[in-house]
Amino acid sequence: MGKFIYDGNQKVEIEDRALHHLQVVITTKLRRGEPFLFTWREDASVGGGRSSVWISAVSDLVFKYASPGQADLNRHWIEALAFTANAPTGLYLVHEPDGAAKAEPGQPAHAYS
What we know:
Helix content is 24%, strand content 25%. By secondary structure, the chain is of the alpha+beta class. The chain has one domain (2-92). The radius of gyration is 14 Å and the shape is globular.
């Protein structure tokens, strides 16, 4: 289980594979100069509910992974996450679509429209 850490004090545990896909979407949006809202559900162990943070180029972000290797990327999942990030409600974690389409070697995984 990895961690997404925002501005050093807001932390959420996210499974490594999902975190890797979120990292691709988040960094792509920031490279494009597109700030956005990121929302997640809190675990019941910390009181439940949900949290949202505004992510921009000045945000301090850390993606901390439990495993040393990188997960294979699923283009369809990246596109689904990017769709939410571009919506008025902002980025939130959606389930990985069935029929995974892996990014091909040599092609950037963040090359989505």
